[in-house]
Amino acid sequence: MQIKTAVGQAMNRKYPEPIAIAVAKDAQGKYNPITLGWIMPSSGEPPMLAIAVAYARHSYQAIRQSREFVIALPSSSMAKDALFHGTHSGREMDKLAVCETRTQRASAIDCVLLAEAVANFECVLESETKSGDHAIFVGRIVAAHMHSDRTARRLYTVGPNHQMSGVIPG
């Protein structure tokens, strides 16, 4: 049986959910990461991923300006970094440097990969759609990478400001 409730209360029932970290080069030349809960495949051919970023976030302007970004699927070893990247702004700091997040150069775009992530996808911005207080960015995947250790586990969130690791088959 269903009971009527507030939207926010019902939305909390979506957890646990996978998270992602998007990275884009900002106007100052810094690679800025942001942790996101809203990510989905949006096309199989060509391969595309969609992310939702709040207009107020520094990363919103970085993605619009650079027109390219990396979507990293963080591993369980990245829990501290993922929480920091999602709760601090890159406007006044270099979040990758503060967290000492290990990176590698991307191969097809001007960005960085997160070295400890389960997978990284280099994306070129295909479209932007307004969606309430967020923009939905659709990125065409131009290169993909995965961690050499296939036992690396994916990171999930169990709710606001909390993470847990989970096992993803394959």
- Can you tell me the CATH class of one domain? Mainly Beta
Name the helix and strand elements from N-terminus to C-terminus, one letter apiece. HEEEEEHEHHEEEEEE
- Average pLDDT number: 93
Given as residue ranges, the uncertain stretches (5+ residues, pLDDT < 50) are none
Distance between the termini: 36 Å
- Gross morphology: globular
Give the tags.
single chain; about 170 residues; alpha+beta; Pnp Oxidase, Chain A; 7-stranded antiparallel sheet
Overview of this protein structure:
This protein has 170 residues and is of the alpha+beta class. It has a domain at 18-67 and 76-143: Roll (Pnp Oxidase, Chain A), CATH 2.30.110. Helices cover 16% and strands 44% of the residues. It contains four helices and twelve strands, in the order αβββββαβααββββββ. The strands form three sheets. It has a seven-stranded antiparallel sheet. A three-stranded antiparallel sheet has the order 1-11-12, covered by helices on one side. A two-stranded antiparallel sheet has the order 7-8. A hairpin with a 2-residue loop joins strand 11 and strand 12 (162-166). The termini are far apart. The mean pLDDT is 93.
Sum this structure up briefly.
With 170 residues, the chain is an alpha+beta fold. It has helices at residues 7-11, 58-66, 79-87, 95-99; strands at residues 17-18, 20-25, 31-36, 39-43, 48-54, 68-73, 103-105, 112-114, 119-131, 134-146, 154-159, 162-166.
